[in-house]
Amino acid sequence: MHKDSLDFLRELVDTPSPSGFEWGIQQIIRRRMEGFCDEARMDVHGNVMGVVNGGAPLRIMLAGHCDEIGLMITHIDEKGFLYFAAVGGVDSAVTVGQRVRIHSAKKTVCGVIGRKPIHLLEQEERGKASKLHEMWIDIGARKKKEAEKLVAVGDYATVDVGLIELANDLVAGRGFDDRAGAFVVVETLRRLKGRKLRVAVFGVTTVQEELGLRGARTSAFGIDPHVGIAIDVGFASDHPGADPKRTGECRLGKGPALHRGPNINPVLGRLLEETAARKKLPVQITAEPRATGTDANAMQVNRTGVATALVSVPCRYMHTPVEVISLDDLDNASRLLADFLTNLSDQQTFIPPSP
């Protein structure tokens, strides 16, 4: 991966953005989009849209959500300890003992998530994951009034980890679900710069996906696309404990995953697979027998219906602070989408032919 792109990925991962708190990261994305889009704009929800060849009759929407799971302060006790609730699907088993940053109106405040030490746990409590309401954040305050000078109820908190590089071009970090998809959207727009397109491309980094696909719903309504492609992470099956019989076989470094199922328009799915074959780009195929739970689901049922597809970046340890993905898979996902869009005809129909 080019150093400039890797630096941008690192900035994405290192910037906190729990659902409802995406404005900071979206400003970073918007500035980068402005370098190679005809227009880059943000809507009232915080979705950022990069537009290329916007006047073409066939509108294609790419969607990768920029929000991550996080925490929100719900209570400050008399001793200055902070209690919190989950924003999105937080796993309590990997939450205890983490360093966190609380994003207050004044400044970022450091803290740690505490619980009773194992020595003081009853025998039946040992080996069980603590519940979120049994944990607290310690910021070092000695009493409530002191804590309230630094943080407030309703402030967001995120686990304090950044991107690290592993062997074999793998990287680990917090929030690859779905900074990976947001990155691919922006990289695809970068690759389209200077190419002659016959279709309009709207690259959207959506918000609040972790709370119910909200940004995809509102941005799709505004764009009214004919085609919508979500880019998200998918379950990797190449680590201990994974079960390919449940999730399908999907390995890091073997290319992005394409899918077949009711959330995937068969014409669009076939065109993506044909593009990969023609360009000799590695892809993996998995089955999705129901709604995918990604932005593709929201786009598909927009207005009178949208032809949708999903491109997934294989990911290990999803919804933990150490999600692992492959840089090669990111590169190949953006190459696939850029080549597909470059060769897409404005006369293409996505209504499946009769059998």
Topology:
Layout: H1 3-14, H2 23-33, E1 39-42, E2 48-52, E3 59-65, E4 70-76, E5 82-87, E6 99-103, E7 108-114, E8 136-138, H3 144-148, E9 156-159, E10 164-165, E11 170-173, H4 176-192, E12 200-206, H5 214-223, E13 227-235, H6 244-247, E14 257-260, H7 266-279, E15 284-287, H8 295-300, E16 307-315, E17 323-326, H9 327-342
Parallel strand pairs: 3-12, 3-13, 13-16, 14-15
Antiparallel strand pairs: 1-2, 2-12, 4-5, 4-9, 6-7, 6-9, 7-8, 10-11, 11-17, 14-16
Q: List the strand order in the largest sheet.
A: 1-2-12-3-13-16-14-15
**Which series of helices and strands comes N to C?**
HHEEEEEEEEHEEEHEHEHEHEHEEH
Q: Would you identify the CATH architecture of the largest domain?
A: 3-Layer(aba) Sandwich
Structural class: alpha+beta
The CATH homologous superfamily of the largest domain corresponds to: Zn peptidases
Strand content: 25-35%
Number of DSSP strand runs: 17
Tell me the domain tally: 2
How would you state the average pLDDT, rounded?
Answer: 95
Number of helices: 9
CATH class of the largest domain reads Alpha Beta
Unreliably modeled segments: none
Q: Tell me the radius of gyration.
A: 21 Å
Percent range of helical residues:
25-40%
Largest sheet: 8 strands, mixed
Explain what this protein looks like in three dimensions.
This protein is α+β, with helices and mostly antiparallel strands. It folds into two domains: 3-68 and 174-342, Zn peptidases (Aminopeptidase); 70-159, Elongation Factor Tu (Ef-tu), domain 3 (Beta Barrel). The chain has nine helices and 17 strands. Strands 1-2-12-3-13-16-14-15 form an eight-stranded mixed β-sheet, sandwiched between helices. Strand 4 (70-76) and strand 5 (82-87) form a beta hairpin. The chain starts with a helix and ends in a 13-residue tail after the last helix.
